[in-house]
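Notebook, bench 3.
Goal today: get a predicted structure for NAD(P)-binding domain-containing protein from Jimgerdemannia flammicorona so we can plan the truncation constructs. The sequence was checked against the plasmid map this morning, with no discrepancies at the termini. Length recorded as 268 residues. Pasting the sequence as submitted so the record is complete.
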Amino acid sequence: MSTAAKLLLIGGTGLIGSAVARQASSYNILVLSRTGAPLTSSTLSLNIQYYKGSALDPFTFRSLLTNTSTVVHTVGTIANQKNYGDQGTYEKLNRDAVVTVARELAASAADEGKKKCLVYFSAASAPPGWILDKRYIGTKREAEKILMGDEFKDQLRVVIFRPGWPELWQYYEFRYRCLPACSPLTTDCHEYPFVVPIAFGAIFASVLFSPFKSHIPDSLTFLTDRPVSDKVVSKAVLRAVEQEDVEGVVDIAKIQELALEWSKVHRK
């Protein structure tokens, strides 16, 4: 068994989780997901182990936390998942899931006598309620408040990523195979979301509206959030994990800064 640090990706078969897995070659990576299997061949690797489970059920992942230094939590939803009943609500997926994971991670940190790192994916902002249910951003902020409260301050270093909402649209599975010429055996080929009308439009909007951000109503600030690619986000995550002084909210500008630092250090 390798002596490399263990990193647990919860919801690790999605766009962001898969991107982190591809970049984190120096870690022993554990991936927890509903299927317990990779979605594409791009994340098949000797340093990745897949487990079937749920962030809402500690029994399915508690043993994975032993000697695991970092957990990256990417579970969440932009809409109630009716297929999962009471387990598919905003409250369960955006808030309760990460709090459940944090409590288990904090317990393992206390048992092992060392502080551990939890990376949580939130959001910079969200469209107004007539476009997207306010519970989406509301449950994200509730989760942030709990994670950054007194309950975890002694056991966990909590890092909260707030990418722009278009990035989260990518992240929550709005995708299809748009690179049909790629061979399934090509390790750098993976499923990308269909981002032409979303991400490109959001980039244009962010350039147009950013200079006037201080004059824009709160309900429209999401228009100033520039999308960031999954590769940039994954590099930023790994840099945040490496840097013990990185804690609290990481906004879009900081995400880009951390990604650049990681590229310089690792020459990738």
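The chain has two domains: 6-164+228-266, 167-181+188-224. The longest strand covers residues 28-33.
Flagging this for group meeting.
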